[in-house]
Structures are given as structure tokens and as C-alpha cells.
Design goal:
Number of domains: 2
Order of helices and strands: HEEEHEHEHEEEHEHEHEEHHHEH
Strand order of the largest sheet: 4-3-5-12-6-13
Strand content: 15-25%
Oligomer: single chain
CATH superfamily of the largest domain: Periplasmic binding protein-like II
Structural class: alpha/beta
Largest sheet: 6 strands, mixed
Shape: globular
């Protein structure tokens, strides 16, 4: 090939490079390239996160909505100060909504129960467990009964067999302490909620409602979160002449805070760790922190891991509360 024939091709190559350089200078948004699903290179934006983005937190609706608003608004205020970021509490209608809205990214951070936490992680790969309360390391269910049902307090799960033929209510269908674990303990007593109660088992929707329904005599007995039971008794909003305690269950892991898998992408590198650190930094010797921790019924938040909820997942699958 002669020199005169090589020059046009060289000139074309130089011009092409100049065009690419000008185009790159005209775009002030940084980009990165990554392999697409078909192996070809794709271009994605890496623009900095919006510093004004609101961190949206929520919690499973396990008790009276006004109580949840008080608790989680207080947490929003604390996190807003600790993270220097606006934080908003977003209430949800039911347990399933907390899982689905977390999956779609409409909620950035949720205080899940054990079962809903497992469901959320399975549906939202990469979700991060942030912390649990100290009491969630050994949480418990309490079985209660209407005094008129003439049921005796028992000391062993197997003695719950006395509930056979009675009218019984759980809390929410997706509650760990109000449905999953009670089903498990009833099974250990040889009872099936599908066949051994007088009529179909009820689902009150929340721990507070379980107490109210049993107290009213709508059901002979029910199961709920021990923490809510204790708070109601301490507040004097339970008539203990009408409702009696049957059994406090063996312990298990329960509630925990979880953040979405793209939290750092949305709020900046290291933000997920900052949220976790803020929760773990709550100190009961600090009067302001103590007030917040009291709302959660805890003395502190502690680290947790997915492995703590293996038993919850196994029971959930056995009871067909977790698909797959």
C-alpha cells in the first residue's frame, strides 16, 4: 500500500477521535460503563446522590396506629439529627404493605418483625440488617384467655392442649409473635389451628386488638407480643379480672431494622453504615436517648445478622407463610 493511499484513512481516524472528544467535553455528567445482560457495554449515570432526599422509614403495624406514630416519629427526629438528613415516618396499612413498599424502594428503612424481615430479604436481595433491640435477642409470645373460659395457667408449651375446642385468635396473619410462633407452639402441643378450635381461628390485625377481643369475650383465648401485653398492664388498660395469662413462651429472635440494598446509592457512600452506627449509639445513660429507647421497650440496640432468623424462616416455610 502506498503512502498516498494511507493518508485519507489516517485523517478519518483523527477526525473521529476529535468528534468523540468534543462530545465528551459537552457532557458534564460523569458516566461509567458496565457489561449488560448480553455482554455488550452499557453506559449508566453515576451522578451524585441528592443531598435533599428524604429518608423514609416505617414499621409493621403491629399495634395501635397512634402509638406507632409516636414511636417512629421520635426515631425520625433522632435519625434526622444524627444523620443530618430529613427523615420521615411513613405509616403502612398492613404487614404485607411494609414488605412490598420496601421491595419497590418506596420505603428506605423498616422496623420489621422476624417473619416480615425474612420475607423482605427474600424479596429484596441485598437488603441490609441494621440492628435489633436488646429484647429481640430473646423475644417471647404470651398466651392469654378470657377469665370466663375457665382455662388454667400452664408452665409448658405442651399443656396448651387445653385450648382444644376453644375460640382462638391470632394477631396479624404475618406477625411473628402473634401468629408464626404461636402456630409453632400450638403444633408442639398437638393442636392444629385449622381443625382443633371452635370455628376458624381469628386474626385480630394487631396485638392491642387481640387483648381487646379476648377481654370482651369475643374469643376465649389468643396470643400476642409479650412486650405489648406488659405495656398494657402497666398502663392499666387491661382488666385483669377479665383476662388472665396462660403461658409465656420460650424465647426466639424477632424485630429488627433493615435498610434497602441501594441505600448508599441513594444517600451517599457509607450511609447504610452511618444509620446502623446511629442506632447502636443510642445510650440509655443519655436522658434524651433513654426516652426514645423507652418507647421501643429497650435499653439499647444491638447488632444482628440474617443467621439469627434461620429458625423463623424454617417455621415460616413449614406453615406456608414463606413461598418457595
Amino acid at each position: 500500500m502506498t503512502l498516498s493511499r494511507r493518508r485519507p484513512r489516517a485523517l478519518v481516524a483523527v477526525l473521529a477521535l476529535l468528534v468523540l472528544a468534543v462530545a465528551a467535553c459537552g457532557d458534564d455528567k460523569p458516566t461509567t460503563t458496565a457489561a449488560g445482560a448480553d455482554g455488550d457495554a452499557t453506559t449508566t449515570s453515576t451522578a451524585a446522590p441528592d443531598p435533599n432526599r428524604v429518608l423514609k422509614i416505617s414499621a409493621i403495624p403491629d399495634q395501635d396506629p397512634s402509638k406507632l406514630t409516636t414511636i417512629n416519629t421520635a426515631m425520625a427526629v433522632y435519625l434526622s439529627t444524627a444523620l443530618d438528613r430529613k427523615v420521615e415516618y411513613v405509616p403502612v396499612t398492613d404487614y404485607a404493605a411494609s414488605v412490598s413498599l420496601f421491595k419497590t424502594g418506596d420505603l428506605d428503612m423498616v422496623f420489621f418483625g422476624g417473619l416480615t424481615g425474612v420475607q423482605a430479604r427474600l424479596q429484596t436481595p441485598g437488603a441490609v440488617l441494621l440492628a435489633q433491640r436488646d429484647i429481640d435477642d430473646a423475644f417471647q409470645t404470651v398466651f392469654i384467655a378470657n377469665a370466663g373460659a375457665k382455662l388454667a395457667a400452664v408452665s409448658d408449651v405442651k399443656e396448651l392442649a387445653e385450648l382444644k375446642g376453644k375460640r382462638f385468635t391470632f394477631g396479624s396473619e404475618s406477625s411473628t409473635s402473634g401468629r408464626l410462633m404461636p402456630e409453632y407452639f400450638l403444633d408442639q402441643a398437638g393442636l392444629s389451628s385449622a381443625t382443633d378450635f371452635s370455628g376458624p381461628a381469628g386474626f385480630s390485625g394487631s396485638h392491642d386488638k387481640t387483648i381487646d377481643l379476648v377481654q370482651a369475650g369475643t374469643y376465649d383465648a389468643g396470643a400476642l407480643n409479650l412486650q405489648v401485653w406488659k405495656k398494657r398492664k402497666d398502663a392499666g388498660t387491661v382488666d385483669t379480672t377479665k383476662v388472665v395469662e396462660l403461658l409465656v413462651s420460650p424465647p426466639y429472635h424477632d424485630y429488627h431494622w433493615m435498610a434497602g440494598p441501594d441505600t448508599d446509592e441513594r444517600f451517599g457512600a457509607g450511609f447504610t453504615a452511618r444509620v446502623s452506627d446511629a442506632l447502636l449509639a443510642l445510650d440509655y445513660t443519655n436522658p434524651t436517648h433513654a426516652k426514645l429507647l423507652d418507647l421501643y421497650g429497650a435499653k439499647k440496640f444491638i447488632a444482628t445478622s440474617a443467621g439469627n432468623y434461620t429458625e423463623i424462616e424454617e417455621i415460616g416455610r413449614k406453615l406456608n407463610l414463606i413461598a418457595g
